[in-house]
Amino acid sequence: MLLNGKTLEEYLPLETLRMVVRSPLELTETLEQFDIKINVKGGGYTGSGMGAMRHGITRALMEASADYRPALKAAGIRYS
């Protein structure tokens, strides 16, 4: 996963922040299935920045397969 040209570990300094971004992939057991490249502007590391990244990943997963919906919905992750 690349964020603004950096690895997830380089871009987000804390593991808790990385967990939020990875959560849709972990819930759907697809962490190793997709190559993800995200370009982020504004929002900072917390708040809207991480939420926007997680939301974008979730929407991409839903486009890839509706089979991921139950796991995401059960975790309360919005995708619309």
Could you characterize the architecture of this molecule?
The protein is globular and about 30 Å long. By secondary structure, it is mostly helical. The protein has helices at about 10, 15-25, 50-65, 70-75, and strands at about 1-5, 5, 35-40. About 50% of the residues lie in helices and about 10% in strands. Strands 2-1-3 form a three-stranded mixed sheet. Helix 2 (about 15-25) packs parallel to helix 3 (about 50-65).
Which key phrases capture this entry?
80 residues; mainly alpha; 3-stranded mixed beta sheet
Shape: globular
Total DSSP E strands: 3
Radius of gyration over C-alpha positions, nearest whole angstrom: 12 Å
The secondary-structure class comes to mainly alpha
Strand order of the largest sheet: 2-1-3
What proportion of the residues is helical, as a percent range? Answer: 40-55%
β-sheet strand percentage: 5-15%
- As residue ranges, the low-confidence spans are none
User: Mean of residue pLDDT?
Assistant: 90
Distance between the termini: 22 Å
Concise overview:
The chain is mainly α and 80 residues long. It is built from four helices and three strands; from the N terminus they run ββααβαα.
Strand-helix topology:
Layout: E1 2-3, E2 6-7, H1 8-11, H2 15-27, E3 37-38, H3 48-64, H4 69-74
Parallel strand pairs: 1-3
Antiparallel strand pairs: 1-2
Helix pairs in contact: 2-3
